[in-house]
Amino acid sequence: TEVLAHEPAKRIKTRDTLNYLRSVLRTTRDGFCVVDMNGRFLDVNDAYCEMCGYSREEFLQLSIADIDADKKPELTAARIERIRSTGSAFFQARNRRKDGTVFDVEVSASFLGGEEDKIVGFYRDITERVQADKELQERDLLLQKILDNSVDLISIAELDGTVRLVSKSHELLGYDVESLIGRNATELVHPDDAPAIIEAMQKIPQLQEHQTGEYRYRRADGEYLWFETTGILLNDDSGTPEQILFNTRDITGRKRAGEKLQLKSSFIDGISKVSPDLFITYDKAGVYLEIATANEDDLFLRREELLGNKFSEVLPEPATSIIMQGIADALSTNSLQVIEYELPIGNTTSNFEAHILPLSDDKLLAQVINITERKRAEQEIQRQLAEKETLLKEVHHRIKNNMAQVEGLLSLQTESSDNPEVQAALREAMSRVQSMRVLYEKLLIGNDYRDVSVKDYIESLVDSIIAVFPERANVSVEQKMGDFTLSSRKLIPVGIIINELLTNTFKYAFTGRAGGHVVIELDKTEAHITLTVQDDGIGLHDGVATNGSKGFGLTLVQMLAEQLNGTYTIGNDNGTKNVLELEA
After folding, report:
1. Within a domain: 376
2. Distance CA 2, CA 9 (A)
3. Structurally, how many domains does the chain consist of?
4. CA angle 347, 375, 311 (to 5 degrees)
5. Where are any strands of DSSP class E within 440-515?
6. Residues in a beta bridge with 520
7. What angle do CA 553, 558, 560 make, to 5 degrees?
8. Are residues 407 and 536 in the same domain?
9. How far apart are CA 240 and CA 159, in angstroms?
10. Which of 170, 386, 464, 549 would be a feasible disulfide site paired with 434, CB 3.0-4.6 Å?
11. What are the DSSP E strand ranges found in 199-336?
């Protein structure tokens, strides 16, 4: 009787429990299903139908394989077996809706034994969470790539300076990245710079704004390099300051370049104070950028009237065009250019010489020198030289006239004498005077009173000598003259030597013969000169040699050769061959 009394109460409790469970399954946002051990759906709640886009009737015609987006039946079978053997499982999967779209689910499944084995599963749509996790992973991956590949030094520290994260680029300083974690960010800062950096770090959370500072930081090898760091405050989700992000850049090169530039500026400024010259920097368009000078009297206008203006706006022509051309040439050749120009300064015209040097692709430095006094001195020198040249030309002209008079007197004396020996001696003297007169004529024709054309002089001299010996009209003279110049100091003795040798040839080489042939060759090879006078006459008498000749003519030739620091030889070679060699 007691059992029968308790039976209705037990059924009521069971019914209430079932109603409670049905209410939960009906109102929960999670999907619920019951499947058999083959994965076929036996029951589903409304949330799962809505989640997958199927009606309840459609769902009960499907199996897990139909909504599995990955289409891996072997994985589904393995999960079912694991649930049966262990009693439950928790995993993530991907379902495919009726419209074909895919979404991520989190599955909690339990095994229900009984007359027929079943599995109960709860499905929660975690698409947004998976997408958020994916984006977070992508951001983490991007951050890691930045940390691994950044040239700048990136680090994150607590508000007290304790380092929590550093980029791989810190290895460039010789440190192992892990060895920097946990150290204070200011620990390796130069002692002289540390107080300012610590103060700047403290201001970041106080002022809620970034701070930038320059300081020296120690490498692992002990060397200090210059860095520039910007610290940015990182807040947590509530807006409370949490950490500081540091972005650090090596500025050692920039610092050293700045020091060099400062040194150069100080150097130029120092030079400008002790030098009377102008030092001007300007750009490629001709705009004055800077003017340094201790003497502003050489400026065309006041300094403030020149700075920021172009040459064409403040300077007259042709100075502007000359300077602009100098700028163009300096930039195109990347080399120093020197130009000269004139400017009206005060009541006079001043001359300037500018040395223009490119500093970069568009900036130049010019050292401008006032050369007015030098120009005046050069003009005075040129005037005095012109006067001396006129005077020298007059002297040469008078000497030539005097020699012509002497030559005329010798000619008259020759004609007035009946003595053949006297006539011969007078003709030789007249020939020697002619050699010098011809040289002075060449000096007067040219503008250079030191160097004379050898070809012109020797050819004229030979013609004059031939004219003295009309009886040798049947003797042909071949001239092979190099076209070069020689100083008058050397050419006078060379002319006398040719006169003596050619005179001897006419007098003695063709004795007893009606005619003959003479070759005169004068050539220059680099710094060496060779004179050859050769005939096809009877040759030398026995015993006659260069050093043994007693004739005045050959003795004079030998003396002149020694005066020229040269050598003279004479010998038989199908006639007589004379050779003079000397240095140019």
Report:
1. no
2. 12
3. 4
4. 60
5. 451-453, 475-481, 485-487
6. 479, 533
7. 95
8. yes
9. 11
10. 464
11. 211-218, 224-235, 241-250, 278-283, 288-292
